[in-house]
Structure formats: structure tokens, C-alpha cells
Amino acid sequence: MKNRICVIFTGGTIGSVIDGNTVNLNCERKSRLIELYRARYGNSIIFDELRPLNILSENVQPSDLEKMADCLSEIDLTLYDGVIITHGTDTLNFTANLFSQIFCEISIPVVFVSALFPLEDKRGYGVENFAGAVTFIRSVDYGGVFVSFKNEGENCKIHLASRLVSAMQINGNYESILGVYFGEINDNGFIYNISPNNPTADELRKPRKKSKARKLCMDMVTIQAHSLLNFDFYRFTTVKPKAVMVQLYHSGTVCTEGKEANFINFLEYCNGLGIQVVIAPVDSSARVYGSAVGLAEKCTVAYDISFEMATVKVLLALGSGVDIGEELAENYFFEKLH
Questions:
Q1: Which end of the chain has the lower number of beta carbons within 10 A, N or C?
Q2: In terms of DSSP H, where are the helices of the chain?
């Protein structure tokens, strides 16, 4: 082991300070996070620090994500056991899913860490999440993109970045799709979660093919299904997107009766404009409800991946000139559940 980790700081709450009732970015160059880690866990690890940007993650733009990706791409991986990327919690799931695709073949572990509160606030677990990432990196001999995150009352969990879903409303807890995390950190170190849904260490050691899609495009509208959703308000008379994604209910359904709430009517409208419609998530092994019969033949379906991952894949496909259906069918870093 080299006992050397590269840390990429990008801002977010974990890199912020409390100013009265406001949380603001810390613009100092020194790292309070590493200072606190060393005070608690010692100085056995050498940390090299990079700061390509310093933003609140809700404000992230495509150019910011490109800076982060370029920073990671330029690191000499042979010098390190792993890389830790600090990130805000609001868009952690998107960036983690994105990096799991464009860095799917990376040879060392890359681990995202966040905190729900600034480091001065003990509710945030920023140091614990960072320490969990360090422990995980020192415990494994395979590469890939992961997330280290501790929810209140739990051990710090390690997630496959390709399966991280949006944070829970209000409390900000993070989970993997189906609730199957990759592993956890306890007093004995990293403990792998033995689940048929998780890849094994041997599978993670195997070479993975590089993703063809590397660039993002924002020309997409996302719509979340809910009761009494009026699709008639989605009319693209001024600006027309290249694609529309509709997040279905958990059973793979959406309203297909009535007038304003009828997804079929909206689908026909989009088809008439040449707008590709993508629906997600859909379990390929589940029975199809009567309301959803025929939908798969009328639009593009994201099978067996989270809506978050489907969003990343569609934006990458649009930005890279790759066929959306082909990109959704790829399984670059164990995002597929079947």
C-alpha cells in the first residue's frame, strides 16, 4: 500500500462554514476536513489536495462537471491508493452516477464524500464519511466509483455510485436503489454486503469497457408522475427539447386515461414534434399493468436502472451523439439490476 490518497475539493456543505443563520462556502485554501481527520485518526495517510472549483452543488453547471472530470483525468493514478472527491449533498446523486459512467474503467477506487451540515455541526458526519472513504480505499484492490455516506443512527455505508438514488426529502438520507448498499464501515473496517444484487470483488477486478458517451447536453425536460398531473401544460412552442423523461410510479405506470392527465395524449404530441420520450424506471422482470400495456412500443424505456441513472445516460447520449436506447442498454458499472 502506498498510503497516499488524492483529495479533490469542490465545495459543498462539507466545505462550508456557518455564518449566523447562513451556510457559506469556505474560501480558505487550508483543509479543515483533513485537519479534523488527522486529529481523530492520526497522520499515517499522505493526502495530496486539488481544488478545481469551489461551489455549492445546487449551482453546478456542465462546465463545472467538466472541470471535475478533467481534474480526475489528469491525476497520475499510479501514485495513489485512491481518490476522494468532496461534494455537496444536493446533487451528489447526479455527479456520482455521472462519474460511475465516464470513469467506469478507472483502476483505483474513487469515493465521493459529503455532509448534510458544515464540519462544525456534529450532525453532518463529514469527518466520518471522509474516514469511511479512507478505510474503504485501504481495504480493497479494485477500482470503480463509490460513495461514502452515513445516515443518522447507522454505520457509514459504501454505495456503488451507479446505484445511488436521490436523497430522502427533508432529512437528506442517502440510499442505494432497492436499499442494497455495497458495504459498510464498522470497528473492524470495511464489511462487504453479501447480496445477490451486489457485484463481487472478482467481478470488480475484471476490466470494464470504456463508456462511449462523455459529454453532457441539457436539452431535456424531466417530468415526475403524480396524481392529477396535467400534461397539457407541457407545450414546447418556444423552445423544444431533444428529449423528455417521465419518471413513472414504482410499478412502472402512469395515467393513461382521461384527457389532460393522459400520458398517451402527451406522448403523441411529443412524437409529432420529433421529441424522443423516455420512461423510467421499469423492471423488466415485473408483470405489466393494464394501464401500461403498449407503452414500451411507443417510447424509449430505461429498464432495470434508477431514474437518476437513466437521467445521466440520456444527457450523456444527447451530448455525445450516441443513440439513447443503446446508451440505456449499456451496463458500464453494475447499474443494471438484472
A1: N
A2: 32-41, 62-73, 92-102, 126-139, 201-205, 263-273, 295-298, 307-320, 324-329
